[in-house]
Design goal:
There is one protein chain. With 110 residues, the chain is mainly α. The protein has one domain (2-109): Rossmann fold (3-Layer(aba) Sandwich). 48% of the residues lie in helices and 12% in strands. Strands 1-2-3 form a three-stranded parallel β-sheet, sandwiched between helices. Helix 2 (24-32) runs parallel beside helix 3 (50-59). The longest helix has 12 residues, at 2-13.
Length: 110
Amino acid sequence: MRNIFAISSLLESYNANVIVGKNGKEGIQKLKNAEVDLILMDIMMPEMDGYEAMKRIRKEKKYEKLPIIALTAKAMKEDRDKCIAAGANDYLSKPVEKDKLLSLLRVWLY
């Protein structure tokens, strides 16, 4: 929750509208009821992890080009590869560095 608050606060300071899902299942449900430009997907979540959530999102034709950036505490090359294989466009390891996050947002949103 601390990470969610910190990232949400940062993004809101740039006038981003942030929608939070506490797990993959809730995130997918909220995605269906909102207009979304990009997803920051935490990998380690209860009920449905980020890998499964990304796979389900990518099955929907309307979300196949929606940028997804995976966020995980694991920083090994195989973890990055696993995120990309599950549907992420990019990957950031935690703790998330502000400048790296903002740089990736610029890449995928502009």
